[in-house]
């Protein structure tokens, strides 16, 4: 047993990595689906158990082949990445159980296993990026997750999905390349790829122009992946034209992992002093975050497609996360992490609602949602609750996020920023309400019979909706873990 | 009664309306069962709240704390006299409004009655949550629930006009609460280590000068439900709802939740003494005074009966805000009493407006010629309630006005006393013509004569609340004794 516990960090990545090709052997759709769900739940269990191991402040280090750093590669689990692992694997478990949804109509009969295989590879990549303690490893896993997500996005029903996947591929590759250039420069100056070593050695060379340039490449590279305004152009198309299930998965995990990377590089590797005091990226990141909050929300109001609306809303929500980071305080980072968790739940739920709508109506244009309140009551009720969470109504996770973020801003004396956060959440009410009015007050053109999405999709949706309420009322888990993670990060960086 | 028993009763008072809502959904198919169920729940809820009166008057503060909501922030309830009064008003009038509502909805063959009564029960649960909230965050939670649970009631008709009104309703209430109230709460949380409502306030000495004034304004405007100008438009918009909603929610539960919150913040967050110091509340005083007069003047010129009553409500709500802003014991007492007095008067007026609509399908003041002769009981009640709003003794309104005016003089603000007096004159101007029309003009040509009263289910609540206006004049002493300790007036 203790042996198993010891190997958990590697199993976290190894299990989905091996499961992906196994899908080829199993082939049969029903079996593959059950297998994928089982794998994703196993990953979730592993990440929960890892979080349990590190929550008291101890860091779990797994050295490959017993080679200690700087010679070997190591996986390194602290509270911060254990928390992100839980979010990623938890969302994967819930979303994968809903099946491929509408994507099935695109995939040729008998080839469904390819979808699951790509999904598992994507999960592998995301988990790998999060868990590893080696910066080059980050790049490798990032590519695994990106390549598989291009495949997944291209499976969308409309032919424009191909174009969306392609432009995401271009942007994603630029981002990854920038990251790689940054890592290369850092390697040149420090001679190590291990995060801990690198952080130590960087202190002596942090005044050099090379490191400044490395910082710029790394931050911009990650910002592309994270879709920080104005580098967000790839995101709306990718989320809109991808199959809804894929959007649900990527929206709740891929950007979260990118955010984790930004936090890790800024606070764990480059260090607070360099990033915020010498270079001062907050001077740039703070206004951009605020701009994202407003541009994203305002753009969302004018969308005519449900998923596109959600995509623009995501850009705004990413603004909240980067805003927390750019406050450069423990409370700010913690608020950003709380929002990572909370936003994953809300946006996952909403994209699953979109999946249900797409399944039933064949598309997600807002026009098609007219009068769905009476025809798909459970789905639309889920949309209302998750939407209210997005607005930040008390009793939901959105409120917890807002509370934490605004507290952090006020703590730093930024009354005006606090006011802007509130103002942008009012904009969220406008776009959420637009959906509610269409669903409940508009009369559909053609009579549609009352019929819900299949339970297989409805149950995962409601699990996420329920979690949005549960963690809004008993928010202790997310808030405490995020606080501990931020505290650990700051303690190590000092 | 032991402390545990009090807590249990408090819990029941909060849960019963929710059980009620579930029951309404379950019994939706059998209207008679559903409606009797609502009444049973209403009576049980009210008796739970009423049973807390004794202990609270003896100085007990039954409370309940659900920890772990957020680290350092529990979800807490605590019953104090002011909240108890609001709870009594809301749950008591719920029973009468339910009866009235059955008459109205059936008399009018409204659609979606089950949804209607479900949301109604949820709204009452939220109002009680506000009444008994022990801290600012809990209060905010129920404040928002109240907004969202009343939205389906406002848009009940589902027409284009209703949807538009719903937008104004939600837009103003939610944006003020998020932009100002939540910000104010968070600001308070950075100043004070507790957000718990504490007698004497939690802010004294922690903030001063202009920022304190700003915080007070954030709170006052943040509570959009108090309908301070210029954030009052949602209330006339909400009049598109069926009349029982206008009566209970937009004359009592929702708007009173607003002014109650303002009063509670004045007393328990700022503290009366702190507010009185340094002219902190001067600006708020002026805004409230302007709202009182401007809304009254607007009411004069409106022909639609419900709209006129809505503007009258806006004006009357600012009595309570002004009472809080005057920050003297007497004014605060007047404000507290006015929650009850105005509720009884205004709900009667709305009941009458609904009865006229159901019986005669009339909505405009100018159509009401001679209607008092056809509906003598209904308009007798209207007359009594009008006089109570105008503050003629022996009707309840006289007491609250008495304390408010005394408070204005105590605070050294004789101008504010004049504002109260002017507003009374204006209320004669917009209410009395209706009574005069109804009784002293003859009906339009070709309309059949004879008495045609509202259905009994509607008439009984109308008479009950009108009599209540009368009775409360003589029993105001009990309410005074309940509130006195909070207002610093001694037992």
Brief synopsis:
The complex is a heterodimer of chains A (about 500) and B (about 500). With about 500 residues, chain A is mainly α.
Description:
The complex is a heterodimer of chains A (494) and B (491). Chain A is an all-alpha fold and 494 residues long. Chain A has one domain (2-493). Chain A has 20 helices and 2 strands. A two-stranded antiparallel ribbon of chain A has the order 1-2. Chain A is globular. The mean pLDDT of chain A is 87. With 491 residues, chain B is mainly α. Chain B has a domain at 281-491. Chain B has 19 helices and 2 strands. Chain B has a two-stranded antiparallel sheet with strand order 1-2. In chain B, a hairpin with a 2-residue loop joins strand 1 (63-70) and strand 2. Classes of the chains: A mainly alpha (494), B mainly alpha (491). The interface between A and B is medium-sized, with 31 and 27 residues.
Query: What form of chain B results from the Cα inertia axes?
Result: globular
Distance between the termini of chain B: 21 Å
Give the H and E element order of chain B.
HHHEEHHHHHHHHHHHHHHHH
Characterize the biggest β-sheet of chain B. Answer: 2 strands, antiparallel
Please give the oligomerization state of what you see: heterodimer
pLDDT averaged residue by residue of chain B: 83
User: What's the helix count of chain B?
Assistant: 19
Strand content of chain B: under 5%
Mean pLDDT of chain A: 87
The general outline of chain A is globular
Key attributes of the depicted protein:
heterodimer; A: 494 residues; mainly alpha; two-stranded antiparallel ribbon; 20 helices; B: 491 residues; two-stranded antiparallel sheet; globular
Write the SSE topology.
The complex is a heterodimer of chains A (494) and B (491).
Chain A: H1 2-26, H2 29-54, E1 60-63, E2 74-77, H3 79-97, H4 112-131, H5 135-154, H6 160-190, H7 195-205, H8 209-226, H9 234-241, H10 244-270, H11 272-279, H12 282-301, H13 306-326, H14 330-361, H15 372-375, H16 377-391, H17 397-411, H18 415-441, H19 455-473, H20 476-493
Helix pairs in contact in A: 1-2, 1-4, 2-3, 2-4, 3-4, 3-10, 3-14, 3-20, 4-5, 4-10, 5-6, 5-10, 6-7, 6-8, 6-9, 8-10, 9-10, 9-13, 10-11, 10-13, 10-14, 10-20, 12-13, 12-18, 13-14, 13-18, 14-16, 14-17, 14-19, 14-20, 16-18, 16-19, 17-18, 17-19
Chain B: H1 3-26, H2 31-51, H3 53-57, E1 63-70, E2 73-78, H4 81-107, H5 113-132, H6 136-154, H7 160-191, H8 209-222, H9 234-237, H10 243-270, H11 272-276, H12 282-300, H13 305-326, H14 329-360, H15 371-374, H16 376-390, H17 397-410, H18 414-440, H19 456-487
Antiparallel strand pairs in B: 1-2
Helix pairs in contact in B: 1-2, 1-5, 2-4, 4-5, 4-10, 4-14, 4-19, 5-6, 5-10, 6-7, 6-10, 7-8, 10-13, 10-14, 12-13, 12-18, 13-14, 13-18, 14-16, 14-17, 14-19, 16-18, 16-19, 17-18
